[in-house]
Each structure stands twice: as structure tokens, then as C-alpha cells.
């Protein structure tokens, strides 16, 4: 006897659980029951779970009976001729969808040759165990599983051709790669997903070697000549917008070049890029502090009728200017209305991004790294046939990560480039590495992918042979230009009087005790003064009560909060954050007494 649960709710018991489960499955395959029902028999505790709720991940499998699949050659021919569709196969009970529960009761074969009497299902294709992004990694079965996952995640961060109408869109943080390419080493999924319509990488010549240690710790070395010819170059787009808000009393914002009488007028230099309508002129180069959209607003507080009458003249400045560290060329201007019917002005800025030191690159195998140096073409190593690598990859990245697919793709890319064809690297169904090596041999190269290299600086032949080939490399959206920040002096927080946090607010980096010690060792005393002395304050302290006193402007005297002016008060230097702590303790009803001693 087994208990039955429908969507985790107990409904009763059955005497013969095995026949009950098989009956439900048969009814589902015949179409009597909906095909989104799944059933799972937990034999250890003798419980049956019938699931039909939303949010379950389900995947299709071919049904197997008595060691043979229900999908026949006739079915395949009918699919090719267009007589049958996928939905027909599901309706006929040839293919069914299983969820995680029912999969526990299934024995799934990878290929037809693996089938036995005990198998219940077979994979449609062996590669269907992975998702779409993971299936784009070539030779994925030569890879360690965690690197395969990282490889799929990295592809989502790559720069490419994300939308054909990018020039009409106002997307935040958009990047366009200038010369995207289709990979030489592809998988079947590249064809299925129309990858050539939106590629996101470039085929580079990659050498696996060290070069003065500039590619240590996953760093990559780029050929400066390749970059000057346009390798991995991209454009970064970011929008700036302003709207004319409506206020009570019929007042409204106005997009225009502000007059000099306006409260908070900046300087003529800040408004120099604006045209007569108050919007930046297209193709103007703007940088931080420059106004992109000029705007004035009515005064914030209208106290009396006199001020209300004057409100026409005393407007305040509310222009949109570029924040700290931002710059770009005004690329595209849109004048429109939002849902409320207010005028909306949008300006898109563009900035050309040429790869530089610190920009992130990756292959499709989770081998990510940042640029360590740009080597001039004349100093770069070259092969006997005159090939100079675009990118030099460190050999130390392979041993611990075991991404053999990275090396196989180098070999496959070389064969594809020399043979003028695409190489298939589909998961579990790829071309064999042995066959690629034989083909490379027939193309006139060493079958192990290595070549004799010369040092570009000395012209001497290198002792070791260098593994070199073509590889699809991706430029990722993590660029130094977006992350670089510095601070010498800058704004402070209102409450604590300490430096602000974050790149956008001109903030500094947080320094702890350990960081302080390293700066002392370097003798960087001015930096420590800026970081640790930024909220220094001198406060009067009552020597009797030990509380912070105050200055009374009426009597022109220092006062104690307890004893008034009949007390000795001394000035004490402290951190403003400590003074804030004393105030907070007093607000809790705790008396923090400061005991003073003379300085000797």
C-alpha cells in the first residue's frame, strides 16, 4: 500500500503502486491526461507524488520499450518531409517531458547503442544535458564541469552585436563590438540559434607561452599592432535624460539655456556645448561638469504671495551635467513625451573603447584574464612562417583547471583556418582530436600544433616549440575605463564628515588598519592624513561634567550643558565620528564622561 500526494497534498492510498504509476503514464501518453503531469514513486518510503503545478523544469526524452525506442526511421523521414511536427511526436506518445521527480524513476540512455532491456528513455541528442549557452562551448566534453559553467557565464558578458537597431535604442550601458566574427570552431547550437546574426567575439591567433611574466596569474598579452588594426575595438553607449516636470500652481520646468539671473547659474564654459534650444549639439565632445541638457525649474518653496508674484524671474538651475569621470561624444538626440505627457529629452553619448591594460578577455572555456601589457608588433614573437600572435596565453592556466577543450580548440581553429572550413565541436558529437591532428599534418604543419618561434627583440630562436593556433576570444564588458577611480581631496558625508563612498560620488577606497600600516611603510603620510584626518574637529569639553559644551553667540562665551558658564571648558581635538558617538549615547540616556588630562 502506498500513499498518494497530488501537488504535495495527501489524497489517499493505492494497493498496487507499480500498476497505478504505469496506468497514469499510459493515460498521459495516450492523451487522456494532460501531458504536463508527472508522477514519481519513492520506493524507499512507499509514497507516490503526482505533480502538475507550475515552475517545474521539464525536459523532453524519447520513450523506450523493451530495449527499443518508439522513434522509428519512418518518423524521422516524415519529420524531414514536413509531414510530422514535434507536437505530433508528443501527442503520439513517442516523446514525453520529465521533471526532476519522474527522472528519478527513469533510466536514460545516451545513444541507441547503449540501450538495454532496463532502459526507459533515451536522450534526443547526447548534448541536450546542457543549456544553450553551455552548448556553445566547443569540445565541452573535454572540459571540467565547473569550467564549462564559467565558460557559459562568460559568454553572457561578452561584447558583440546585441541588436541590429542599436543606433535607434536608448539602452543603459550598451556596448557594440566593431568587427564581430563567427567562430571557426563552432557547435551545432551556433547554427540553431542563428549565431552569425549576433556574434560576440573574434578569431585570434593565440600562442601558449610566457613573455617576461606579463601574463602571470591569468594575464593575457595583446599585440599592439593588432589593436591598432582594430582588434577587439568597441563603442560604449550611455543615455542622459531630462524631463520637464509639472508642479502645483501651473509651474513647469523649462529645457533651455539658463539665464545668468537664474539661481545656481554655473559658468558660461559649462554651457558652451548647448545650442539655442538648450540641448547639446550632436557630435560635441563633453566631459565631466559639462551641461548636456540645460534646464531651469520654478523655486522650490513659495512662502508668501510676494514671492509667488516674483516666481517668474527667480527660477533655479536644474540642468543635467555629466558626473565625475564621465565623458563622451553626443551621438543621438531624441525629443519625445513620457506617459504623463511631459516633454522628455534624451541624449545618447558614445565613446570609442580601444583595448588597454586591465581590460578583460576570455576564451569560451572559462579561461578569463586581464591584459597585462600591449607588446609592439616589432617586439612580439613570430613563427618561421612569419605568423605573429594577436594574444599570448599563459601555459599555467591549464594544469590546475584541466580545460583541455581550450587546447583542442586551438588545434581545431588552426585546421579550420588552413583548410578554409568550420570545425564542429558539438558536445559529445565533435570531430575527434586525432582526426584534426592528421588533417593538420596533411596541411604542412606539425601534427601536435607546435611551431618554431623566434624572439622579436633579439631575433634568436626559442628553445621550446610554441603551441599556437586560432581561437575564438571574447572581450568582456568589464573595462578599466568604467572602473578606474582616484581621489586626492573631495566631498564628505553630511552626518559623519568622513569621505563619501563610491566612484559616482568621488569617493575614496576604504583603508583599514592593515592598509594603514602598508602606507606608513611606504612613507605616504599625506595620503594617511587625507584618509584618517578628514573628519578632525575641535570641540569644547566641560571639565566638571565631562560633556561636550557649546558656544553661546549671545553672551560670546563657552557654555557647559550642565553648569552653564560657571565651569572650566577646554578645547579637545577628536574625530567627528567619535563626537557623533557621544551624541548618540546621550540620546540613549547614557552619560559619556570625558576625563581630561593636561598635555605635557
Describe this structure in words.
By secondary structure, the protein is α+β, with helices and mostly antiparallel strands. It has five domains: 2-124, Alpha-Beta Complex (Hypothetical Protein Ta0175, Chain: A, domain 2), CATH 3.90.1070.20; 140-233 and 357-475, DNA-directed RNA polymerase, subunit 2, domain 6 (Dna-directed Rna Polymerase Ii 140kd Polypeptide, Chain: B, Domain 6), CATH 2.40.270; 236-353, RNA polymerase II, Rpb2 subunit, wall domain (OB fold (Dihydrolipoamide Acetyltransferase, E2P)); 485-532, no CATH class; 536-587, RNA polymerase alpha subunit dimerisation domain (DCoH-like, Alpha-Beta Complex), CATH 3.90.1800. The chain has a six-stranded mixed β-barrel. Strand 32 (550-552) and strand 33 form a beta hairpin. The longest helix is centred in the C-terminal third of the chain and has 16 residues, at 404-419. It is extended, with a radius of gyration of 35 Å.
* Mean pLDDT figure: 92
Query: Which word captures the global form?
Result: extended
First-last Cα distance: 91 Å
Using only CA atoms, what is the Rg? 35 Å
Q: Give the oligomeric state.
A: single chain
User: How many beta-strand elements?
Assistant: 34
Amino acid at each position: 500500500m502506498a500513499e498518494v500526494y497530488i501537488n504535495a497534498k495527501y489524497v489517499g492510498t493505492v494497493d498496487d503502486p507499480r500498476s497505478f504509476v504505469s496506468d497514469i503514464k499510459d493515460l498521459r501518453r495516450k492523451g487522456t491526461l494532460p501531458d504536463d503531469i508527472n508522477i514519481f514513486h519513492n520506493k524507499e518510503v512507499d509514497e507516490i507524488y503526482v505533480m502538475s503545478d507550475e515552475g517545474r523544469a521539464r525536459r523532453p526524452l524519447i520513450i523506450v520499450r523493451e530495449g527499443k525506442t518508439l522513434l522509428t526511421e519512418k518518423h524521422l523521414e516524415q519529420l524531414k518531409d514536413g509531414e510530422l511536427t514535434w507536437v505530433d511526436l508528443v501527442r503520439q506518445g513517442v516523446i514525453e517531458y520529465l521533471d526532476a521527480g519522474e527522472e528519478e524513476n527513469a533510466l536514460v540512455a545516451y545513444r541507441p547503442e547503449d540501450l538495454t532491456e532496463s532502459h526507459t528513455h533515451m536522450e534526443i541528442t547526447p548534448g541536450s544535458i546542457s543549456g544553450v549557452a553551455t552548448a556553445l562551448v566547443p569540445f565541452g566534453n573535454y572540459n571540467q564541469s565547473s569550467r564549462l559553467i564559467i565558460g557559459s557565464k562568460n559568454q553572457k558578458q561578452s561584447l558583440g552585436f546585441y541588436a541590429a537597431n542599436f543606433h535607434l535604442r536608448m539602452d543603459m550601458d550598451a556596448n557594440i563590438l566593431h568587427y564581430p566574427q563567427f567562430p571557426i570552431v563552432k557547435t551545432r547550437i551556433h547554427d540553431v540559434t542563428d549565431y552569425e546574426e549576433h556574434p560576440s567575439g573574434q578569431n585570434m591567433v593565440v600562442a601558449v607561452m610566457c613573455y617576461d611574466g606579463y601574463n602571470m596569474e591569468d594575464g593575457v598579452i595583446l599585440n599592439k599592432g593588432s589593436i591598432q588594426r582594430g582588434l577587439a575595438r568597441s563603442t560604449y553607449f550611455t543615455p542622459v535624460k531630462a524631463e520637464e516636470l509639472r508642479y502645483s500652481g501651473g509651474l513647469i520646468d523649462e529645457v533651455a539655456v539658463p539665464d545668468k539671473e537664474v539661481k545656481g547659474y554655473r559658468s558660461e564654459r559649462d554651457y558652451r556645448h548647448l545650442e539655442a534650444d538648450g540641448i547639446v549639439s550632436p557630435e560635441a565632445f563633453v566631459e565631466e561638469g559639462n551641461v548636456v541638457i540645460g534646464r531651469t525649474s520654478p523655486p522650490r518653496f513659495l512662502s508668501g504671495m510676494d514671492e509667488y508674484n516674483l516666481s517668474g524671474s527667480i527660477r533655479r538651475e536644474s540642468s543635467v551635467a555629466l558626473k565625475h569621470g564621465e565623458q563622451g561624444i553626443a551621438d543621438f538626440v531624441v525629443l519625445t513625451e513620457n506617459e504623463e505627457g511631459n516633454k522628455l529629452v534624451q541624449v545618447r553619448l558614445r565613446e570609442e573603447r580601444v583595448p588597454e591594460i586591465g581590460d578583460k578577455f576570455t576564451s569560451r572555456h572559462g579561461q578569463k584574464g586581464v591584459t597585462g601589457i600591449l607588446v609592439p608588433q616589432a617586439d612580439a614573437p613570430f613563427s618561421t612562417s612569419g605568423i605573429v600572435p594577436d594574444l599570448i596565453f599563459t601555459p599555467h592556466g591549464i594544469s590546475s583547471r584541466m580545460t583541455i577543450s581550450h587546447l583542442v580548440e586551438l588545434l581545431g581553429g588552426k585546421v579550420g583556418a588552413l583548410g578554409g572550413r568550420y570545425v564542429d565541436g558539438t558536445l559529445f558529437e565533435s570531430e575527434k582530436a586525432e582526426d584534426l591532428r592528421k588533417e593538420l599534418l596533411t596541411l604542412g604543419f606539425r601534427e601536435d600544433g607546435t611551431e618554431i618561434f623566434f624572439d622579436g627583440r633579439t631575433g634568436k630562436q626559442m628553445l621550446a616549440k610554441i603551441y599556437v593556433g586560432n581561437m575564438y576570444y571574447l572581450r568582456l564588458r568589464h573595462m578599466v575605463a568604467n572602473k578606474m577611480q582616484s581621489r586626492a581631496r573631495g566631498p564628505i558625508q553630511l552626518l559623519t564628515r568622513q569621505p563619501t563612498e563610491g566612484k559616482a560620488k568621488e569617493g575614496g577606497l576604504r583603508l583599514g588598519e592593515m592598509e594603514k600600516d602598508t602606507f606608513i611603510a611606504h612613507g605616504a603620510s599625506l595620503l594617511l592624513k587625507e584618509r584618517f584626518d578628514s573628519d578632525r574637529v575641535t570641540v569644547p569639553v566641560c571639565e566638571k561634567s565631562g560633556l561636550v559644551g557649546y558656544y553661546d553667540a549671545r553672551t560670546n562665551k563657552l557654555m557647559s550643558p550642565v553648569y552653564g558658564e560657571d565651569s572650566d571648558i577646554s578645547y579637545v581635538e577628536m574625530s567627528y565620528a567619535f563626537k557623533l558617538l557621544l551624541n548618540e549615547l546621550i540620546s540613549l540616556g547614557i552619560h559619556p564622561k570625558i576625563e581630561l588630562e593636561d598635555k605635557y
